[in-house]
Amino acid sequence: MRVLHLAWEYPPVLYGGLGRHVHALARAQAAAGHDVVVVTQAPVGSSPEEVRGAGPDAGWRLSHEDGLRVLRVAIEPPGALTDLLARVADMEHEFAAGCEAALAGWRPEVVHAHDWMVAHAGVRLRAWSGAPLVATIHATEAGRNAGWVTSQLSTTIHGVEWWLANTADLVIACSLAMAGEVTTLFGVAEVRVIPNGIDPRDWQVPQEARARVREAHADADPLLVYTGRVEHEKGVQTILAALPELREHHPRVRLLVAGRGSHLPVLQQLAGELGLTDRAVRFLGWVSEQDLRAIVAAADLVIVPSLYEPFGLVALEATALGAPLVLAQTGGLAEFARGGSHALLFRPGDPRSLVTAVGAGLADRGSNQARAARAAAALAMRHDWATIAEATVGVYREAALRARDEPLDGHDGDGAAGTRSQRPPAPPQLTAPLGRLLEADW
Hints:
This protein is an alpha/beta fold. The protein contains 16 helices and 18 strands. Helix 1 (about 15-30) crosses helix 16, helix 3 (about 85-100) packs parallel to helix 4 (about 120-130) and helix 9 crosses helix 14 (about 350-365). It is globular.
């Protein structure tokens, strides 16, 4: 099947889990024999000349990677277009123009748009190709903001999300919780649930690398680890608030925070206010992938304290590395924990609940390891990328069957370009602030 992925992040441009998800999914689809093209943005600082070349022979360049093709487009650097919506519009224009130029002799059989930042490009390329549009909603603006949409920017983003969900031929979500969120917010009756995946073979750490981390923190017992983006909704503040009480029972406890984000200065200030010295918490900032894996593998417990988490890819990664988990009971994390069978759970945003969960994990390390082993077995059963790629292609085929019932003007089903006879639905008239759209726990 000819597959066109649109993703605003993709290696080496990574901000969170979306880019890694698309990368792994596209590779798995290519390995299964599908003809896959990914369109994404080039690294910041890449000029249009670097991407397309210069002079009369300039053209869009498709690179061959991992058995698939990648088209990277250059967009204006952050200093040139500081407004988020302007940058997104610029990116989407370049995505569509790049496809139409570089893929002139190739037409996808499905266009797969990942999140709102590629919504307009996805709809335009559906019309250009005559292929159905499948959208994965990885997260929502309301969800990221505790159920609230209060600013003009958030209202606009929410409107684009509504438009994408209601325009796509089919919608995919990564968890039952996320499917329910999409249905509640956008009124989409049918959402296909396909979880995130992982290839455990990519998450192997030499024993000596783990030993180096333990040696570097030989005075820490236990060693707690958080990895990921450092944003308010990721809930690292909950761990910090729990540390003083944890230190009463475990004076040598240490938390490593590996990641960066806009909430980091707030957390550093909070740590100071709580009297947490470098012996109790260390903010490592960005670390290399190799070092990150060694840190996770060396942890006594990996804590994922998210206040909002559609799935929680970091839980799969920690499981692949053999680390016992303590997860906030929210979204996809709660589903992965299987009622405590695969990970200890605590109420999101509740430091006292986290203290109890961590205490239980440290008091019975045998049960901890048993939970980690059950979680690892689940990776092969439910989170293998080949299985996920096959399920996703199944959604593509279903979308294609549905699209046949919607004729295209000038499109006879052979992949020629055309425009859908029905225009995409107009979003509801939205004015800020919309207020609370979801019931959230934080």
